[in-house]
């Protein structure tokens, strides 16, 4: 695959088997899908790139905007200050059925301050931007003259020519060198992939067959597709749909709601014992107004 405009790779179209029947039920059934040729960014949008967009467009992200009290009639938030969800590791094993054990709402958290007002992206220009909602990602793509990829485009590109493979590199489990995923016991002990705890700079892990970096692990990535429940009935023995991406807050199930979009790729928080979603077939529903410390995006053209 040849590189074209800065950061973009030309992906030749083709037909592939999309999805999986071997892991989580929302990934099935496997269907044969044709994708036309398109271009995809070699890596996720970085803090440096997003900062250039904000400076030029004067854009204010979802996490930086005042909250509407009407959206929280039950008083679930202690503060209505702008903010976002921040991953906070626990100090010991906890009930993995309750994502609230490791996620908290932090006023002042945004792409500039991913973990709260006292945090910063200084020295992290090359890391993927996080704390960006679907609207934020879409706004950047439009500014850049690009777009977000469809779910099918994303998965086809992630496979890098390995049709039907479990991982973007083949069948071997991740040993911490292939993708930035949780290394240890979730959510309290992470030894880091190649030493990275949290996001790693883009390009830190080996590219797939199409020359694309971090198509799984590092950050979940927004796609343009509305979430639809297009899967087979869930057998009693199947792994549960879990909460959103298996390591974060839940999004509504079902389908056809434009306020819920498909995330792909898994993140640095994915752990085999809890969220084995750093695979090309893995997918997750996410509310479009959500911004967290493990969601980013890349652009297509």
The SSE order reads EEEEHEEHHEEEEEE
Are there runs of 5+ residues with pLDDT below 50, and where?
231-244
- For the record, give the distance between the C-alpha atoms at the N and C termini, rounded to a whole number: 15 Å
What is the CATH homologous superfamily assignment? paralog of FGE (formylglycine-generating enzyme)
Number of strands: 12
User: Which CATH architecture?
Assistant: Alpha-Beta Complex
Number of domain modules: 1
Strand order of the biggest β-sheet = 11-10-9-12
**What is the average of the pLDDT values?**
90
**Largest sheet, if any?**
4 strands, mixed
What radius of gyration results from the CA coordinates? 18 Å
If you consult CATH, what is the topology? paralog of FGE (formylglycine-generating enzyme)
CATH class assignment: Alpha Beta
Sheet-strand content, in percent, reads 15-25%
Q: What is the number of helices? A: 3
State the helical fraction: under 10%
Principal-axis shape equals: globular
Structural class of the secondary elements?
A: mainly beta
């Amino acid at each position: 695959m040849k590189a074209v405009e800065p950061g973009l790779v030309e992906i030749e179209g083709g037909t592939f088997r999309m999805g999986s029947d071997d892991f989580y039920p929302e990934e099935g059934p496997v269907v044969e899908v044709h994708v036309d040729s398109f271009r995809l960014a070699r890596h996720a949008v970085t803090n440096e790139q997003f900062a250039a967009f904000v400076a030029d467009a004067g854009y204010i992200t979802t996490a930086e905007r005042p909250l509407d009290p009407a959206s929280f009639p039950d008083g679930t938030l202690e503060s209505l200050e702008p903010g976002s969800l921040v991953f906070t590791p626990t100090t010991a094993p906890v009930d993995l059925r309750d994502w609230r054990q490791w996620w908290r709402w932090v006023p002042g958290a945004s792409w500039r301050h991913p973990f709260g007002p006292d945090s910063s992206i200084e020295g992290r220009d090359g890391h993927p931007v996080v704390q960006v909602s679907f609207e934020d990602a879409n706004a950047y793509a439009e500014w850049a003259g690009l777009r977000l990829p469809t779910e099918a485009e994303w998965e086809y590109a992630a496979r890098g020519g390995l049709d039907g493979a479990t991982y973007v590199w083949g069948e071997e489990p991740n040993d911490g060198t292939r993708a930035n995923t949780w290394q240890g016991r979730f959510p309290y002990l992470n030894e880091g992939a190649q030493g990275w705890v949290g996001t790693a700079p883009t390009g830190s892990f080996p590219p797939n067959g199409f020359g694309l970096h971090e198509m799984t692990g590092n950050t979940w990535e927004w796609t343009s597709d509305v979430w639809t429940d297009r899967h087979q009935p869930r057998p009693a023995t199947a792994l549960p749909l879990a909460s959103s991406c298996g390591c974060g807050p839940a999004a509504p199930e079902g389908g056809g709601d434009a306020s819920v979009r498909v995330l792909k790729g898994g993140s640095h928080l994915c752990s085999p014992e809890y969220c084995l979603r750093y695979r090309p077939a893995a997918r997750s529903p996410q509310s479009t107004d959500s911004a967290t410390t493990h969601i980013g995006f890349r652009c297509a053209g």
